[in-house]
Amino acid sequence: MEALKNVLSPLGMNTNAIQDTLKLVVIGGTVETARRASISAWNGFVDSFFLTAHFSQEDYPYDWLMHWLSKQPAWGRSREFEITTRTTSRNGLTQSTTGDLEDDDEVEDEDALVHGRRKRKVAFIPSLDTTHTIYYRGHWLRITRTKRYPDYSHGASLKISVVARNNDILKKLVLEAKREYEKDAEHRVHIFMADTTYGCWRWNGARQKRPLSSIVLQPGVKDMLLADCRDFLCSEDWYAERGIPFRRGYLLYGVPGSGKTSLIHSLAGELGLDIYVVSLSSKGMSDNTLTTLMGHVPSRSVNVHPLRGYAELFNFRFVIHYPLACPRQSTSTSNNSDTNDGSTLSLSGLLNSLDGVAAAEGRLLFATTNHIERLDPALSRPGRMDVWVNFTHATKWQAEGIFKCFFPSKPSASPSTEATSQEKTDVSQKNMPIPKRKAPAHAIPVLEESEIAELAKRFADAIPEGELSVAALQGYLLKNKVRPRESVDEVADWIIQERETREKLKKEKAEREAKEKKEAEEKERKEKEEKVAKEQEEKELREVSTTFAILCHGSLANFLTYLCRNSSERIEAKSKKAHRAEAAMKLEGKLESTAPAATSTSTFADAVIPVTRTASASSSESDMSSGGIEADTEESMTSEEEPDKPADATPGSTTKGKWVAVKGQQGPSLGT
Ligand SMILES: Nc1ncnc2c1ncn2[C@@H]1O[C@H](COP(=O)(O)OP(=O)(O)OP(=O)(O)O)[C@@H](O)[C@H]1O
Q: Which of 304, 338, 465, 493 meets the CB 3.0–4.6 Å disulfide criterion with 277?
């Protein structure tokens, strides 16, 4: 310090101030160093004693953990959390929680309605960017939820740290979370939609599973499909041993409203798979996008995509797809440039996405179409579509099944022997949906099984075979859902009405089509006429411009042509008049000597004066004197002007005379 003073004093500086500053720097530096050292030491301690697991929202374990966390009693005591009535993840299960605001008894009844609306339940979920500590099986878990992309609803991740010797505790935690998740998800089918902008899948909701028994198909169809799917799902090794791509395609084709979509939904529920839907007509859908999407369908999921836009081409609507060993969901935006390249989907792109080199393995693919005849054979060949199922309009058997499925019934006091004997003898009845036995939710009368069976029979008898869709029957029964007996009594009238409506619609459609056709023809005819008229006009214009080119020269002729385009008829008339006047003057022998000659051409010259005056004197005569125009001019002169020539006039003087007569308006120097 003394040395510093000795150095600074000759310079005349305040040594006290400098000393204080230096002290501050030293103290501050020491504190900051200590802080960093302590953080680093803590991190080292955490790293050596804590086990940390990361869960990304793109993968299933994140859902399991979020679901598990939402059920933890400790969560309700947390000092910072989010309360939501919304489903916060694709699992749709975070709504059930221990932190409910209402009495447990009330909350337990999931179907309870308040003022006609379903009760909303709240969920307690970890708030973002906050570390929570909860106790689990003798360990303290430190849980932090962060968002990787703040601007997007997806992209969150979960970090769980625990002090432990090995990761057994984390394994147990994940397994427990998974079991609970699957137990709660048992009755739901998750739907994912394709996001063509980012080339990834977005969770769209969880729907209640549809019992397979509620789908009424011809006997054996459902069983065959279910058995085939199950067999496929457990045949991975068999496929691998034989080198066959582990994929299976189903083509469901037939009339609209016959249950194709419903069957897919039902099968997905039965097999415990998620449904992935991609519309090929989506904006931005391209070969690349579809290939990316198909390559990123998670394992053991079902993927549906209606091909509405493509339906115009192939009328091909659904794909169910589930690869067994693919990343869960790609939210990567790295594909954007590829996916948004504006290209459209092609047949080869579609085929490639189904079984190209990049196509995912281990998936079920269901495709549906209303017009199988329009499908490209390449699309429906075995290997791409292995199983074909035809869906027709409702048969009597289906009508009976739908009726039984629709109305609740209770066991008969004295079962009808007739019905029993029928069921025993009719093997196909095995496929009949199980009649609902639940207590009615509304004022639906619960009839005895025997009565329902009898009504169903009568109903089926009244339904014409293969004429109405099952969806139409369902619509009719829905209208009569509290009137089972009346619905049977009135079904004949309804069928008549349906036929009339169909006829009317058909007629209207035919009329509309005829009108559209007529309009199209009319339009085409008009266009043709316009084209012909235009061609004619152009031809006339060419002729007129040729005439003027004879009379004028160089740029003047060009301008006249331009004028002619605007008012060809007027100018043509003027030109003819000018010709006549000129010829008259020639005949009178006054062409070069008298003023009236110039006046006589003034009518025609009116149109050219403004230009001839402003036109540069140097405007190249050579432009017009060379090339095709001159050739035309000479030719036209020969053919058109000769009749007007006086017998004694030389060709040269005639031409010159005309030139002078018009250009004479420009000034005396041009006259001869
Ligand atoms: N075979 C069936 N069994 C039970 N319900 C059916 C059946 N067919 C149709 N439905 C009912 O009709 C409605 C429409 O059925 P769905 O959408 O499955 O028909 P689709 O064949 O897929 O029609 P589209 O080809 O027009 O898409 C659904 O509500 C479904 O409940």
A: 304
* Rounded distance between C-alpha atoms, residue 295 and residue 329, angstroms: 10
CA distance linking residue 660 with residue 266, whole number of Å? 95
Residue whose CB lies within 8 A of the most ligand 1 atoms, among 406, 470, 479, for a mutation test:
470
Q: What is the maximal distance between C-alpha atoms in the chain? A: 132
Q: Please write the tens of the pLDDT for every residue from 283-292.
A: 777 888 888 8
Q: Treating both helix axes as pointing N-terminal to C-terminal, what angle do 470-479 and 491-551 enclose, rounded to 10 degrees?
A: 120
Name which residue sits closest to atom 27 of ligand 1, judged by CA: 256
Task: Give me the numbers of helices (H) and strands (E) for the chain, helices first please.
Answer: 27, 16
Ligand 1, atom 4: nearest CA belongs to which residue? 215
Cα gap 570→608, rounded to integer Å: 13
What whole-number distance in Å separates Cα of residue 272 and Cα of residue 184? 12
Report whether residue 491 contacts ligand 1, using a CB cutoff of 6 Å.
no
Q: Tell me, what's the ipTM?
A: 0.98
- Tell me whether strands 81-84 and 123-126 are parallel, antiparallel or unpaired: antiparallel
pTM: 0.57
Whole-number Å distance, alpha carbon 306 to ligand 1 midpoint, is 14
Pairing of strands 117-118, 50-56: unpaired
User: Is residue 215 lining ligand 1, measured as CB closer than 6 Å?
Assistant: yes
